[in-house]
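chain below, 78 aa
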Amino acid sequence: MVALTTPSTSDRTHDSELTRRIDSKTFRQVHNLHVVHEAGRVVLRGRSESYYVKQLATHAVLDFMPDAAVENSIDVSR
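prediction:
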């Protein structure tokens, strides 16, 4: 049996703050950015035109949450 959980209010607040920080650090170059934070794990989804921007997104998360496990699933394509 799989337990389903819904993100807490603090997780959703972190999602919004992380989205703002990623947008700022990447100069809004991650398109369709979607951030999910739950229990110390952060998942990033979206699209970027460069691996450098993808890396900046990871660093934006780690600057805000240094102990987070980051799964960066941002697609890089032109």
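Residues 5 and 78 are 35 Å apart (CA to CA). The first helix runs from residue 9 to 25.
thats it, cya
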